[in-house]
Specification:
With 173 residues, the protein is of the alpha+beta class. It has five helices and ten strands. The relative contact order is 0.20.
């Protein structure tokens, strides 16, 4: 059963990679946020709702297809269930075209993430851990999570540095 799950994840990653590399159609216009902005996306995107940017409140992110990933991290005790939007789904919804994301946290920590990784792995833009929303104190409200338990090659300081918490902004370059 586990090997079938890995096959399905691998097939999904291949399909997502092809989708990320395919020419983009203009994304549908986004709704306007009605609550506090939790994520700003800018750069090479077609979907926008605020000038040249896409602004998201939590309700908008919760309205997108959701995924759950069970994995341990260097900052948590044992495996945790993280829920959120797959990064590849967010990028597809925005008609993103680029090769990298500059991810910036509320404390101005910044890291560059190759967009191809969002197609290769189910990278999650998590808003909940173990069924509960993550507060600022718990590394929320948004935390990029890589499937560390399913892919040994991701268990390196390089990939750990890309697991940015208190995410506030993504710039597609």
């Amino acid at each position: 059963m586990l090997s079938r799950r890995r096959f399905v994840l691998a097939a999904s990653a291949v399909a997502a990679s092809a989708q990320l590399l395919a020419p983009r159609r203009a994304a549908a216009s986004l709704t306007q946020p009605r609550d506090r902005i939790v994520l700003t996306v800018e750069g090479a995107i077609a979907g926008r709702n605020a000038g040249d940017r896409a602004l998201f409140d939590m309700a908008m992110l919760l309205g997108m297809p959701q995924a759950t990933l069970r994995t341990a991290t260097p900052w948590t005790a044992g495996p945790q269930d993280f829920t959120g939007v797959l990064l590849r789904d967010l990028l597809a919804a925005l008609g993103a075209r680029g090769t990298a994301l500059k991810a910036r946290a509320l404390n101005d920590y910044e890291v560059t993430i190759p967009i191809a990784e969002a197609g290769r792995y189910p990278v999650l833009l998590a808003h909940s851990r173990n069924g509960a929303p993550m507060s600022l104190r718990e590394r929320g409200p948004l935390w990029i999570i890589y499937p560390l338990d399913d892919h040994a090659e991701l268990r390196t300081p390089e990939f750990h540095s890309r697991m940015i918490w208190q995410l506030a902004r993504l710039t597609v370059v």
